[in-house]
């Protein structure tokens, strides 16, 4: 959470009665859009992780480095095609990236994902720049409903790697001011 503090913005949706976290979204602001040019204060400060004391940060980073990161690279050929397409369709103008969106399975289909995405759309409207998202099948309908435009999609057979046979990725753009009634 302390990485790229300047540009990353995090949001959690919390149940006010139980305090349980229902969902989470991570956004990345484009460089040079992360602070107000007039006074240097951060843009969207309520979604920025607060800084911690340097000693505390060093301790957190030491702990993070002990994690064993050993991903399985078997399906990389599928990802290579996804990455190539993403490179091709990524907007050439500054954009907010929706990097991560997840709602706990117990709380899905209750509007939590919509609320999280909506708050990023509010920022995009305020800043006058697009949102770009690399979506999975589960999220595609949500973005469409909210007024995002599908700019590319790729469905590949992932059955050789234990998948369902249809590994789909969808690239969407939200242009500021173009939200639909359901957003
Ligand atoms: C995708 C996800 C974030 C949606 O969050 P959510 O809180 O359930 O979404 P909402 O309740 O706001 O749903 C709004 C609309 O999106 C669509 N939608 C949501 N989940 C869907 C799903 N699993 N399949 C198809 N459409 C879906 C529906 O149109 C839904 O409206 P409806 O419930 O009236 O039919 C959530 O299902 C999730 O975390 N999935 C696992 C992680 C994941 O795939 N994240 C990547 C997203 S790109």
Automatic annotation (TrEMBL):
Ranges annotated as spanning the membrane: none
Pfam families (alphabetical): Acetyltransf_7 (PF13508)
Domain N-acetyltransferase: 19-176
PANTHER family (alphabetical): GNAT FAMILY ACETYLTRANSFERASE, N-ACETYLTRANSFERASE DOMAIN-CONTAINING PROTEIN
GO terms assigned for molecular function: acyltransferase activity, transferring groups other than amino-acyl groups
Superkingdom field: Eukaryota
Protein's name in the database: Acyl-CoA N-acyltransferase
């Amino acid at each position: 959470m302390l990485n790229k503090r300047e540009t990353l913005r995090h949001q959690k949706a919390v149940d006010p009665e139980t305090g349980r976290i229902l969902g989470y979204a991570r956004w990345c602001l484009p460089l040079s859009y992360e602070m107000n040019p007039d006074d240097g204060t951060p843009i969207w400060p309520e979604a920025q992780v607060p800084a911690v004391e340097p000693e505390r940060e060093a301790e957190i980073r030491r702990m993070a480095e002990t994690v064993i990161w050993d991903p399985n690279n078997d399906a990389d050929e599928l990802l290579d095609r996804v990455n190539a397409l993403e490179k091709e369709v990524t907007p050439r103008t500054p954009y907010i990236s929706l990097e991560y969106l997840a709602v706990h399975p117990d709380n899905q289909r209750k509007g939590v994902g919509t609320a999280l995405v909506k708050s990023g759309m509010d920022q995009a409207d305020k800043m006058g720049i697009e949102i770009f998202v690399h979506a999975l099948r589960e999220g595609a309908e949500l973005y469409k409903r909210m007024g995002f435009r599908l700019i590319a999609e790729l469905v590949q057979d992932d059955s050789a790697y234990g998948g369902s046979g249809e590994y789909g990725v969808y690239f969407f753009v939200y242009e500021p001011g173009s939200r639909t009634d359901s957003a």
